[in-house]
Amino acid sequence: MAVIDQGGGDGVVDRAEADRWIRYTYDPVRAKRLGITLPGRNAGWAILSLIEAEWLMAEARDAGVTVTVTDAELDAHIGEMRRTRYLTAGDLERSGLTIDDLRGAVWAETLRAQVEQRLVSEPPAVTDADVRAYVREHPEVLRTDERRRVALVMTLTRRRAHAARTALQAGRSWQAVIERYGDVDTHLGGGGVLRFESSWGENEKLRRAMFRTRRGEIVGPVATDDGWAVFEVRSITPSRRLKYQDVAPGLKRELAYWRGQEALTAWRAAYRTKWRLRTSCLADFFSEACGATLPSSAPPA
Question: Does the global pTM surpass 0.70?
Answer without folding.
Answer: no
